[in-house]
Every structure is written in structure tokens, then in C-alpha cells.
What does this fold into?
Amino acid sequence: MKNFAAVMLGALALSCAAPAARTETDPLPSWSDGSARTSIIAFVERVTKKDGPDFVDPSQRIATFDNDGTLWAEQPLYFQFLFAVDRVKALAPQHPEWKNKEPFASLEKGDMKSALSGGEKAIAEILAVTHAGMTTEEFEKIAATWLTTARHPTTNQPFTSMVYKPMLELLTYLRANGFKTFIVSGGGVEFMRAFAEKTYGIPAEQTIGSSGKEKFEIRDGKPVITKLPEIDFVDDGPGKPVGIQKFIGQRPIAAFGNSDGDLQMLQWTCSAPGPHLCLYVHHTDATREWAYDRTSSIGKLDKGLDEATVQGWTVVDMKTDWKQIFSFEP
Amino acid sequence: MKNFAAVMLGALALSCAAPAARTETDPLPSWSDGSARTSIIAFVERVTKKDGPDFVDPSQRIATFDNDGTLWAEQPLYFQFLFAVDRVKALAPQHPEWKNKEPFASLEKGDMKSALSGGEKAIAEILAVTHAGMTTEEFEKIAATWLTTARHPTTNQPFTSMVYKPMLELLTYLRANGFKTFIVSGGGVEFMRAFAEKTYGIPAEQTIGSSGKEKFEIRDGKPVITKLPEIDFVDDGPGKPVGIQKFIGQRPIAAFGNSDGDLQMLQWTCSAPGPHLCLYVHHTDATREWAYDRTSSIGKLDKGLDEATVQGWTVVDMKTDWKQIFSFEP
It folds into this structure.
């Protein structure tokens, strides 16, 4: 009887223990054996080893992820821009004046190149009519509906299926090891919050992005927050460490990106004293995904690639390091 | 044997269950029996009752707290302003020109009234020299040192002892019931982050406040973030719901404040559909704390008190609802 009780109490202790890193089950099944995978696992084991010299308290295990090109794809155009184009088309019947007004006239015709020839001013005008002039709750509904109905132009998949399976595994692996995972992206924060929790397990308050100004007002006796057509914060380049300081208030110990827009976030993370991990996803697989870097207009990775070499950061070669890229792959 | 196994498995199930509200131990011992305490407990039981009509998923149990006058005292002046005054005095030897320049000349003499006669411009000048022109890491150290060495002018206690014991109990009670607790305060975010985690158990990324602009730069080959003498965001009045949307991205279901500066946060929280709790702390105890409301220059509570009556919000009468205010009380 005593032995039986001991066995049961043992079972009790085991069942109640915090889930440890399951060495018997591979936490990163989509990652090939290679230096990228090895550097991730070695880092996590170093900072979680209780009596080790590099142990980091869970409260300081902050990991930040870029979104476009790092957690989900960004070709042939940033998905949020495709959302804006669809919104322009949906709103066009209420705006007959757009027929003679750029960039809207070209957008309606599907001529992206002409539409974007207006540069930043054209983009600002598109954002203003598609991302402002409504309440935050109205925008949430519009974005959520688009995400469930729209399809990627080349794969015909829902956009939330265009996420990288190895990165989902990495998010789960880090969280299982006591990390808090954050998105720190140039994308619009409210657009990302429409899918980040469901798709990545990252709650709204851990999703940081670019934003427009907003205003609280009482409308018909009911408080609302309206979105104004004015940029508030650009979470890109040097804006990323500033956004991290503003929203997280702690320096990350791990940062993940794919472009020069992530360079300062990686510099900020990996110049701190103590253990840290900086990783670039390098798009090298033209067959299963896309191949682009130094000269791409979307997700340009040039200075960052040089600095990664100098600093010894981890660079993921998508073609060889990832056994599977998307969950929908055969 | 079978019965013994059943008992042990029962124990296993019990031990592994999420911790329930401990009805045998009072979670709010410093709160008198009364309508304030009753409304808090009734609300928490409603939203956590698994099969009840008002159950709220833990991911949506967001509670926001003002800081000055709600979590810690704010008399005779906002503590952060006392910090700024001490900084002006500490910096004065490096600034002989301040001897003939307001508001610094008056501050050095301890003449607060003359110093503040310059209004917002004077305050902006004081903030610029005390909260900018250094890196974020330098500021963190200065604030942390001040918090451990400075003493409150009338109680002679460290400022972090000037927190309300009933509110600490409330924070713990809410978190034990699956709430995420946030500070949403007009105070400076980096000043508050210097003590919020240790004092309130609220981590940096759940501490939201007013902030100045910041800049990422490489200084002597090392990345730093510097604090600029320019306001970025004022987290007060209508700025509070805007700050909630910007930083949390979800509407709270419970909000706690003490002044008209919290009114819009409470309106935003308690006009949402579904169960919600809005609570004002009313400073009514001139003996143990301070008594002030409609005509106070610090923590004015006028419109908010009227709206609390109209909307049926909970109003804490500090004198009768709180058995103990500060932990250091005899």
C-alpha cells in the first residue's frame, strides 16, 4: 500500500510540475539540423539553465519578432497593402470622384505600378481613406472580415495560412521556455491585432506596430475612438528600438527579423550585456517561397546581411534550414 | 485498492485545478464590509463563473488602474514632481545660470508657488531638464536611486510605502482571478516603470503613462536611446482611452481612478456591452490620508463624482471603506 501511495504521489508531482522542455519530443520539427537550429536551442538552454552563468529570469525573457517576411510572407506586396487595395475597390462606388483622381484611378484598374508612382504621398492617401475615418471597432470588423475572405494572389490561400510553420514552432518553443513573445513590426498595429492572437498566440498588448492618431469622442451619447488620417508612429528602422522602449520598456534578449528595417532592433538587442540571440530570416527559396535580399523593394536585406556576418548573428537560409515552410505544403 | 486509487486520482485532479477564489481566506482584509467591497466581489464572481451568463474569458479580463491618487498618494504634490524638484536641486551646481532664471531660481529656494506661477511653460521647462537629455538607461538609474533614498515630506516614508494597502489587495485578488492588471496613468511611463513591478507586481509592458519623444542612435559605437525634451503622448483625460487602445488594444472590463482625469477611461470601460466595473476612490480621510475632491488643484474629482452617481459606478469612501490605508500605519 505504501508503495502504491508513493507511486501515486510521484505521478501527482509529475503531473503538476511546470512543463519542462520536452527533450523526447522535437520542439522544432520543421527545422533542419544545422547551425540556425543549433544556435536557437543552445541559446534557450543557456538562459533557462537554473544555476548556469547565463540564466535569465523569466521576467526578462523578452523576444521580439518582425511580422512581414519574418512570421508571414510579404510577397508580391505587403499583405496590408493588398487589404488597402481591396478596400479602395470596395469603397469606389461611394467615391465617383476617384475615377479621375490618382492613385485611386489606377488602383481601381488594378494598375499597381502607376498607383504607386506617386510615392509616399500616394501611399499616405491610400492609407487615409482605408485606415481612417471610422471607429476602431468598425476597422476591427473590416479587417477581420477581409482576413477570412481574401485570398493570396499566387497561392490562393487565406493570408493567415501564409505564416511560416518553423516560426510558429519557434514561438511555441520560446513561450514553453518562459519567454514573452512580442511582434514589433512596421505593419499597422490594429491590422495585425485582428489576427495575431489567433494566428500566433500573441495577445493585442504584445503586438506593436505603426499607428495613426486616434481620438476619443462621445458620438450620439456613446463613447467611441475614431481613427484619424494622420501618422502617429512608424515602427520601422530606428523606430523599432524606440517602439520597444515605449511599449515594452525592457530590452529584448532575442530578436528576429528579415530586412534592413529590423537592423536597429537587432543592434539594440544584441549590443546589450548578457546572453542574447539575433536572427535574420534570409529568403532564399524561389520554389517554395520567394528569393530576394539586397536589391528587393519589399523586405530589402542588404546592410543587415553584412552586419549579421560581422556580428556573428544567426542567418536562416530558408531553402536549407526549413524542411517545411507553410502548413499547406503537400 | 480501487478506492484508494480513486481517492488519489481525486487528489490529483484537485491539486492540478486552477486556483479558485479562496472563500475561506478573505482576499480583501483591509476593506470594510460595505457596498464598495460587495460590488467588487460580486463583479469578480460574475465574470469568473464558468457557466454563468456573464462569464468573461480570461484573455478579456483587462483591468486598468490610474496611479496617482488611486494606487499611491498624490499629496501634497504629485510625487514625480517632487522627484523633478530634487533633480533640479541636484543639477543646480552645474547650472549657475539657473540662479537668475525662472522657474529654477524659485525651485532652488524651495518656493514652489513662484516656480509654478509660470504655468505649463514652467512645468515643461522643469520636465525638459530633469526628464530629457540623457539615455533611457541613465534615467532608469536616477529614478530608481531617488525612489530608494527620498522621503515623503509629511510622513517621512519612502514614496513606494505611500501605496494603498486595499488597492494592493485588489490587484492581487484580480490577478488571482485571471485578470491582467494595467496601470494607465498621467504619470511619466519611465518613472513609473522604475517601481511598478516591484511595488504593484505590474510589469513594464503593462505600465502605460505619459511619455516624451525618444531617439535611437549609435553613440561611441554603442546603440543608445536618448530622451528628447518634447512631449510625445499625454495619458490623461481623453488620452486615457486612446492610450488603452494604443497600448492594450482591448477595451477593459474594469477601471479604477480617483479624478476627472480618469473620467473618459471609466466612460470607455463602462459603456461597453457586457459586464463591467467602474470605481472611483474618493479621498475623504483628512486624518489618515487627505480629504479633497471638487476644488482640489491636485486630483480634482468633480464631473467624475456627478457621473458616478448618474451611472451607478462604485465610489470608495476612503474613510469608511478602508480599514487600513497604508501598511506603515500603526
Notes: The radius of gyration of chain A is 22 Å. The longest strand of chain A covers residues 207-219.
